[in-house]
Amino acid sequence: MxxxxxxxxxxxxxxxxxxxxxxxxxxxxxxxxxxxxSSQFDHNFxxxxxxxxxxxxxxxxxxxxxxxxxxxxx
Length: 74
Description:
Blueprint: H1 14-34, H2 40-61
Helix pairs in contact: 1-2
């Protein structure tokens, strides 16, 4: 007998989405830095990806409180 996965409820919230986006950004950044055929622009963009990936993981894991970000803007 086969199981039907169609009727299973999937609870995907913003936490899971931000964790997945952070992991994909980190993988892309590390892959670009490790690539032998990447230019200096690619390396600089990969560093931005790494920073954004760490920030996204911080939001997803609850290490960064997004409710206090409005205090950073003068």
